[in-house]
Amino acid sequence: MERVPSIPGSKRVGRARAVFAALMVSFGVQAAQAQDSPVAANFAAYVQLAPRVVKIHAREPGGRIALGSGVPIARDLVVTNCHVTRRAKSIQVAIGAAFGVTAYEVIGQASDPEHDLCLLRTEVGMPIEPFAMGNSPRVGDPVWGVGFSGGFGVRMHPGEVTALYPYEGGKVLQSSTSFNLGASGGGLFNAAHELVGIMTFRDRAGAAQYFSMPVAWVVQILADRPFVPVAPLGPTASAFWERAVEDQPLFLRANALEAMQNWAELESMLLNWVEREPDNATAWLILGRTFLHTNRLVDAIQAFNACLTADREFAPAWFQLGIAHLLSNQSDRAEEVYESLAMIDAPLARALKLRTIEHRNPAR
To answer: Is residue 30's pLDDT more than 70?
Structure first.
C-alpha cells in the first residue's frame, strides 16, 4: 500500500471523507438498494466524485486570482483548463473544503493551449484518491459533471452525452450537464466514476450546449509536453473554441448555424463536410436534422441512413429516422426503426413509440 506523506490538513480531509461515508450509510442504503434508481445513482456519484475534485487558485500579475476546478489523475498531478491558468505567475490546488482548505503549491505545468488542457504538478503528493481515465463514451451514455460552479462549493450535474465530435486525435464531448464559471477544468465522469472529459466551455451563442475536452488529449500531453515552472503562457495561448466563428472547427460552426436556424448556410457547409468526411456520422446526423427543418423528408431519410451506415449503433440517428418516416406517413417503416432502436437505446425507443402514437392519434 502506498504511504501518503503527512501533510498539514490531511486529517481534515480524512474527517470530510468520514462524514461523506456516514452520509452514505445514513441516507443512501435504501436508495442504493432500489434498482435503476436515478436518485441512488446520483447520490452514489456525488459521494464518490465531489470530495476528490479540487479547486484551482491561479494568481496573476497585479494580484487578480482566477478560480477554476481540477481533476487529480495522480497524487501530485491535476488536470485543468489552460484558460484558467494561462495568465498565472503562481498556482495553488485546494482540497478539503468540508473542514477547511489545504492548499498545495504547483511547481510545474505542462500545457496544450490549443486544446485548452494544462497539467499541474504539485510540490508534494496530496492525500486524495486520483481518478482513473475511462474510454470515450457513446452518445446517450449517462455522465456526471463535477466542478466549483460559481467558484464556491463543489456542485454536480447529471446528464447524458448528446454528441461526439472527432477532432485532432480525440472526440470532443457535448453533454447536457450544465456548468457555469468556476467549473472550468472540472470533470465529466461515466457510470463507473471514471474521468472521460474535462468540462471546458458552453455554446457561445447562448444555447444550452456544454462541451468537454477528451481524456485522449490528456494522455497526449503526458507523452509529449514537458513540465516547466509556472509562468504566464503568453498572448497566443488561446484555444480552438475561442477563435472567430469562421476559423473554428466545422462542428462548432455547424452548432452555431443550427442555433441561429440559418438552414441555407448550414446545408451548404454540411454538404462540403460530408463530402470531405463521408464516414462522419455526426455530420450526416446534423444534415438530416437540417433537411427535417426544411421539410425535405426524402433527403432527411437518405442522410440518416448514411449516418447509420457510418455508425450502426448511433441511437439519435435511428430516432430521427423514425420521425422522418412518420412525417412521410410511412408508419410501417417507423415501426421497423423502433424495433432496431429498442435493441440499442430503450428510453429513446419509448420516446419514438410515444411519437408514433401521437402521430396516429393527433389531439383535436
So the answer is: no
Contact between 232 and 88 (Cβ < 8 Å): yes
Which helix H or strand E contains 53, and what residues bound it?
none
DSSP code, position 242: G
Q: pLDDT tens digit string along 202-259?
A: 876 656 689 999 999 999 999 999 999 999 998 778 999 999 988 999 999 998 898 8
What DSSP string runs through 201-215? EE-TTS-S-EEEEEH
- Write out the E strands in the chain: 54-59, 65-74, 77-80, 90-95, 102-112, 117-122, 142-147, 155-167, 170-175, 187-189, 195-202, 210-214
Summary mean pLDDT of the chain: 87
In degrees rounded to 5, what are phi and psi of residue 35?
A: -70, 145
User: Degrees (nearest 5) of the Cα angle 288, 293, 295?
Assistant: 90
Q: What does pTM read for this prediction?
A: 0.84
Residue 27 is predicted with a pLDDT of 36
Query: For the chain, which domains are there?
Result: 10-122 (2.40.10.10), 142-224 (2.40.10.10), 261-357 (1.25.40.10)
